Amino acid sequence: MSLKHVSPLAGLLSAALLLTGCFSEADKNPGKTADQRLRLAMLQPPRSGLTPLSDDAFKLSRWSTTETLVTLDKLGEAQPALATKWQQTGDNSWRFELRHGVRFHDGSLLDAATVVNALTVAAHAAPKPRILDGVQLTAVADGEQAVRVTTAQPDPLLPQRLSSPQLAILSQKAYRPGGVVDPRHAGSGPFELVQVNGTSNARLERFGGYWGENAKASGIDVSFVPDGTARGAALRTGAADIVEAIPVSQAPLLDQKLIHEVPMPRTNTLYLNTRLGVMRDPALRAAVRDAINRQQLVDNVYEKRADVAQGLLGPALPWAAPLRQPVSPPVAARKPAGETITLATFSDRAELPEVAVYLAQQLTAAGFSVKQVVREYSQIESDALAGKFDAFILSRATVLDSGDPVAYMYSDFACKGSFNIAQICRPDIDQALQKASVIPAGAQRRQAIMQAENLILATDAAIPMLHERVIQGESADIRDAVRDPRERTLINAATQRVVQAD
């Protein structure tokens, strides 16, 4: 496997390639499949050689090949995983006791030194994993089966933070010179990653030495299929058992019994560049805000399989709406006089280019001149982060990392946030986020989060448009695929394909 970036063009698979080249002939005929492997079609190819220090970590997590010290339940509460229990030992320190008898795929055993190594590499990585934005973390061994984790500032959500797939614990052999992390044969989950072919496909095998219950499926064959039509065709023809993120446009063409809508903490947001270009003017940002017809986007692009956004946090967080206060006073809009806006988005999510078309029409009607830019995400992210666009449409997960929105808000809206596409830097927002970050989980923290959201919305730096529901495809033979709103798990040890022999 090459651990360097492979050209994104290699990941663009046509429907024909998906149906003929990604899965074996035996797998195309479930009635004759002997080993009951799972065939998975995923939305995006690896962006960073499947290093867990990047967003590729969520692929490793969704395949159940890597694991973290803790995991989250449906309420976002921390639960045991590679750590069996923990306690706060000081304002800035926690002690985690490790699970005994955990073996990595390369045969090595989980111990304190392995955990310290993994967390230390993550803490010193450049760029730092998103979950560690604004966090200075140190890990030291406390005997052979316990670790003490210290942060520079009090962090009441440290256990939840350590549940992020970007902080997965891999065997020490995974970490190579030069910051390279090779996840093959290095995880501790029920499936072992054994092969990765660039941005085309990957192969996993059942790991017989798993500390929990062995996987029911003998392995996973993964294909990376950015083309939404091809993913829909894979489910329709039976070439794939589980299909990630079926586009809304494809859903009506499929057997409705095979598709499942999962409410997501994911918001389709328009980020406006507050530092460069015409969107520096708050009155013009307000004009953009007023021009957007959210209901039209929900009805026409998402075919009513989404919810109109009232704020950054949607119905997947049911506590948010009752705590939300009107933005006061809202900035008054100035009538545009033909100012040109460069509106950009990416093609990996099939709905976003269509959203861009509707937005361009709405903004043109409001008096702007709109230029559209659409590329694959891997080819547009760096330009978006560098502030090269006036407006950027992003489908953004709001609690992806810790089960808590503060990390997302800091990443996107703090002065030093690593994903600050809006180029925003406001001391009052930074202070509100800092205030929320030090409050323990509970009602007071939720109130502080909504106060920070109110300040962000008042800038019109980010205009939430709608909250998405992901459409997951599962063949009739699949049992116990995971429908996870946080997009952390898709296949676990219980997932299997139940087939009938001829």
UniProtKB/TrEMBL annotation:
Entry keyword annotation includes Signal: yes
InterPro entries per the UniProt record, alphabetical: Peptide/Ni-bd (IPR030678), SBP_5 (IPR039424), SBP_5_dom (IPR000914)
Domain Solute-binding protein family, residue spans: 78-418
First and last residue of the signal peptide: 1-26
Keyword annotations of the record: Signal
Coiled coil regions, renumbered to chain: none
Superkingdom assignment: Bacteria
Keyword rRNA processing: no
PROSITE patterns: PROKAR_LIPOPROTEIN
Protein name: ABC transporter substrate-binding protein
Lineage: Bacteria, Pseudomonadati, Pseudomonadota, Gammaproteobacteria, Enterobacterales
